[in-house]
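Example record used in the benchmark description.
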Amino acid sequence: MERLSDRDLLGHAMVIGATGSGKTNFLLYTMHHIHRSMNAAVIFVDPHGQASLDLARMIPETRVFDPTYSPFGLNPLELGPYSSREDRALMVQLRVGELLRIMEDLFSVTVDRAPRLLWILRGALLYLYTLTDTPTFLDLYYLLTDLMGMDGGGG
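Model output (structure tokens):
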């Protein structure tokens, strides 16, 4: 059986499993562990509401944010912690590859159907990662509109 180290718990995570497989219990235990053992803040997104109430009972210092009143954002392009240039380079390649696979899945964008689009997106993302560890989709939008001459200047 695999074990997660505290370092594995830094950054973003996604838990996938069948109904009744223990995803919620795993997340509650993990959040409680992170808060207690690592003395770190956690963000738990609960679309149904019950698990967040359970977590609030486990962690007395809980703050509940309703996005209706307190909007917040998550940046899926942000790199997690890394220990070397090689580690960072690998993380960048993985993050760019993941984003392109998501585009392929969501929008049926494939190399056969839109080879230039994927090539342009890959290059733009790799460029943005040369500037910062925290590029955003807005950065990508501005870069692409600047490159395509679509800044609204008319010419």
